[in-house]
Amino acid sequence: MQLNLNKRQQYVLWATVRYYIATAEPVGSKTLVDEYNLKVSPATIRNAMGNLEKAGLLYQPHTSAGRVPSDSGYRIYVDRMITPSETLSREMELALRDRLNWNNWTLEALMRGAAQILATLSGYIALITWPQTSTARLMHLQLVQIEPNKMVMVVVTDSYHTQSVMVDVPPPPENEDADPDLLESELQILSNFLNSQLRGQSLTALSELDWSDLGREFEHYAESIGQWLAELARKAHTPATTGIFISGLAEVLRQPEFSELNQVQTLVQLLEEEQEQLWPLIFESPALEGSGRRVNVRIGAENLLEPIRTCTLVSSTYHRGSTPIGSVGVLGPTRMMYENAIASVEAAADYLSAALS
């Protein structure tokens, strides 16, 4: 939004937003003069607020009330008047590093713990998506015999997902008898071969394995294992789970913006039962290329989903290398401490990018 505000108008807008965020009360000109020790009369501030209202940046919820920021006013405030809080960014980084145990916790526990920390420090609803398996790469594969004619194939990816499948052991070549000791040795050789060929490969490339480097005595394994690898690759092409780890809902719902029961019900339903609608909004790279911003900030009506059109969604992606694999976000009222919300989301995204890489 291109608006030419003079210095007084900019300061009045900044002060109005700050005061309203802190109190949730409409702001009058005398309040600003008193709270911010302004060296001008309330009439002068009232004139500036009137001009801001004409520009669509403030509005009066009631005729006799003071003014509150509009979505456009918050947008100017976020884009031009603030910088993320370095203090909260450091606090978030330290909390994630100190409280999460990557050696002993499952990925689910780690993601859930990160969401709880983000919600606690930001003061808003934390949303963290699963790492997406379509970008995952194979870290380890193992073939293990469990019955005379059955084996299990276990695949571990670098996003800490484990998949296993039971596979029929192919019959031995003609004129050869089944030998359990030989089978165990062959499965280990096969496991070593598959790891050497596939480690570090995207799951979507697993079906392209060249079996020509494997000796002829292993050819009878190629079809059954190749079919399962192709199936795994096919699944990797489909969208991964849209599950979102959510924390902090109860605290945010105590805010006055959520005093109406119908509004609370629609928001809770969205978060608990309709996450597939919310997921595309969160899993999105920042839209402002060249701006230096690493987060998306969707304010009020900028959110297309009706249950959150009175909220602000701050989100950023976390990466493996240069590839986005998941997203971190916070959701709260438009009356949000944007400096803290942006800082906490950036710090959490940076931490998960480093940890999962």
Automatic annotation (TrEMBL):
Residues annotated as domain Heat-inducible transcription repressor HrcA C-terminal: 108-342
Signal peptide location: none
Entry keywords, A to Z: Repressor, Stress response, Transcription, Transcription regulation
Pfam families (alphabetical): HrcA
Source domain of life: Bacteria
GO MF term list: DNA binding
SUPFAM superfamilies: GAF domain-like (SSF55781), Winged helix' DNA-binding domain (SSF46785)
InterPro entries: GAF-like_dom_sf, HrcA, HrcA_C, WH-like_DNA-bd_sf, WH_DNA-bd_sf, WHTH_transcript_rep_HrcA_IDD
GO biological process, one term: negative regulation of DNA-templated transcription
Function: Negative regulator of class I heat shock genes (grpE-dnaK-dnaJ and groELS operons). Prevents heat-shock induction of these operons.
Record-stated family: Belongs to the HrcA family.
Protein name, UniProt field: Heat-inducible transcription repressor HrcA
Protein's organism: Oxynema aestuarii AP17
